[in-house]
Amino acid sequence: MNKVSQEIMGMLGISLVLDQAYFKDFFEQNDSILRLNHYPPCQKPELTLGTGPHTDPTSLTILQQDQVGGLQVFADEKWHSVAHIPGAFVVNIGDTFMALTNGIYKSCLHRAVVNTETVRKSLAFFLCPKLERPVTPAAGLVNAANSRKYPDFTWAALLEFTQNHYRADMKTLVAFSKWVQEQESNNKLIP
Ligand code: OGA
Ligand code: NI
Asked: Which residues does the UniProt record annotate as the domain Fe2OG dioxygenase (predicted)?
């Protein structure tokens, strides 16, 4: 998975007219998370969600969903079901990559629904930066037409924020950026 994500990072670099090695180098040393989701059937699926709407705080997600299906993405003002394609992974951008590209790549809003009949399982691999490495956009992606969107931060700080202060949702990066700026101004007040 690490290798696949590095290859994707190479292509994402090319797509932004950065060097192919740019994100590969950035993520050569990295942190990663593997999560197994298990969604039991539910008698009233219309009253609940397996996973509420959120963007992944991480950088790149590679997800394997089983044949039951249930993943949905929000695009063009509505929810779209992501079909299970045998042998295919679902790949999506997370908040940390959005910050690294100064908002050019957007983290993708998604959720998972449940059904009355069948257990559903999915396996998600999340690529994240090395814990203490500063997350700062590539110089070429900040300019007069696209001014700086987010403060510098570390994945360690965003991880702590989502685990201890805030539950990941559709506004995580904005809420986190505000929190980082507040922490910085508090630190300046302490002599
Ligand atoms: C996640 C997630 C969706 C799914 O683990 O972050 O969004 O289909 N999972 O299980
Ligand atoms: Ni997710």
From this structure: 29-129
120 is catalytic: yes
Scan for tokens 């942190």, then name that residue: 31
The verdict on residue 5 lying in a domain is: no
The protein residue with its alpha carbon nearest to ligand 1, atom 7, reads 111
* Length of the chain measured in residues: 191
Kindly list the distances between the CA atom of residue 31 and the CA atoms of 34, 73, 126, 162, in Å, as whole numbers in the listed order.
10, 25, 9, 16
Is 163 part of a structural domain of the chain? Answer: yes
pLDDT per residue as tens digits for the range 78-127: 999 999 999 999 999 999 999 999 999 999 999 999 999 999 999 999 99
From the CA of 124, give the closest atom in ligand 1.
5
Q: How many domains does the chain have?
A: 1
pTM, to two decimals: 0.94
- What CATH number corresponds to the domain at position 49? 2.60.120.330
Mutation test of ligand 1: which of 32, 37, 91 has the most ligand atoms closer than 8 Å to its C-beta? Answer: 37
Rounded to the nearest angstrom, the gap between the alpha carbon of residue 31 and the centroid of all alpha carbons in its chain is 13
Q: Which residues of the chain have pLDDT under 50?
A: none
Residues 6+ positions from 129 with CB-CB distance below 8 Å:
26, 27, 30, 31, 59, 96, 135, 154, 155
- Cα–ligand 2 centroid distance for 54 (angstroms): 6
Provide the domain limits for residue 143: 31-182
